[in-house]
Amino acid sequence: HLRVPPTLLRVRPLTCAETRRGDRRVVHSLGDGTVHVSAARHDATFGFSAVFDAGASQEAVFEGSGMRQLVELATDGFSCTIFAFGQTGSGKTYTLMGPLGQSEARPAAPALLGLMQRSFACLLEHSRSRGPGLALSASYLEIYNEQVRDLLSPGPPCALSLRWSKTHGFYVENQLRVDFESLEAIVDLLLQAPLQLSIPAGSRRRRTSAHALNGHSSRSHALLTIYIRSRAPSACPSKQGTLCFVDLAGSERVKDTGSTGELSVEANNINRSLLALGHCISLLAKPQGKRTHIPYRDSKLTRLLARSLGGSGVTLMVACISPSSRCLSETLSTLHYASRARRVTTRP
After folding, report:
1. Where would I find the Kinesin motor domain in this sequence (predicted)?
2. How many domains does the chain have?
């Protein structure tokens, strides 16, 4: 009964800077979930569950991604995860959260809202239709330079310990969970000045920097998890599902971004954790009988995502790429990465 597309591809438009520079468009959608890459010494076609080209609206991505079904599955007690990955500046954060810089004075237009906000609205509709039967809470973490930090806790971000248990797998010790009952409350936690608990807005605390390829580059991996607990009658066991949004920091080549000093250190840590994630995905994509040990412990990122990658969860991967000829190398890397991810199967 699980019809959620496992791997989607989103191709962003050429930017004004790329157009002025004379970059060519080297990625073309062929329809039916396929894209063609055409450039010197490169001619390849890739297939995915769905492809959203430069003209696709945020609503079209939400409706065509299977997110509504993921919300229903999470409400029914499944563990659901949505990844966004790709080169820095390829549109991952925009796809998940919409345009940055939203505020109470200048909120984003409804048409530009990303998968997160649309999923929250869908989830709260389910919550209202079920009456007081659902309890909703959220946690928000980032992995910065291989340290796990809580984006909702008051005070300066501090490193939290990552633990292991037989019943829960890897988990973050002492992370803060915040209850919410309205769309405004959860959006406040993410983007604006919160209305409760004097908790700082999570996304404003996430590490970002500007470099040659992206004026607002995420320097950490961010994991927002919504916990959905059903308050079942005393005679029945309660169920808890999760809806986890993972905004991976973008892969980047230091020579292209012009990163030096701290930015260079951050880039190396980002690329190292993404390499560990790619290695796990490559091994998980092999047939069951040919798999070797899956090295989840190689990074904090793969430890936290172990259940989503090869365990009992339902996972949706959204690969974001640039169509620019200048980004060809990173675009091909993302396409191959996503093609391997398509072969990973889980047993929810």
Report:
1. 4-344
2. 1
286 pairs with which residues across the strands? none
**Within-domain flag for 176:** yes
**What type of residue is 254?**
V
102 is in an annotated binding site: no
Residue type, 269: N
Residue 91, annotated as binding a ligand: yes
| Strand spans (E) along the chain | 7-11, 27-31, 34-39, 42-47, 50-52, 79-86, 134-144, 147-150, 159-160, 162-165, 169-172, 178-179, 208-211, 214-218, 221-230, 240-247, 314-321
Domain coverage including residue 267: 7-100+112-195+219-342
Contact in structure between 68 and 120 (CB atoms under 8 Å):
no
Provide the token pair at 157: 């971000």
- 169 annotated as ligand-binding: no
Q: Where residue 301 sits, what CATH number does that domain have?
A: 3.40.850.10
Q: Is 75 annotated as a binding residue?
A: no
Q: Which amino acid is at 241?
A: G
> Is residue 93 marked as binding?
yes
Which pLDDT tens digits describe the chain residue by residue (348 residues)?
A: 444 557 999 999 999 999 999 999 999 999 889 999 998 888 999 999 999 999 999 999 999 999 999 999 999 899 999 989 998 889 998 999 888 655 444 566 889 999 999 999 999 888 887 766 788 899 999 999 889 999 888 877 788 999 998 887 889 999 999 888 887 787 777 764 333 333 344 455 555 444 444 444 466 899 999 999 987 666 567 888 999 999 898 876 555 545 455 767 888 888 899 899 989 988 888 877 777 788 999 999 999 988 888 767 888 999 999 999 999 999 999 999 899 888 887 778
Is residue 90 a known part of a binding site?
A: yes
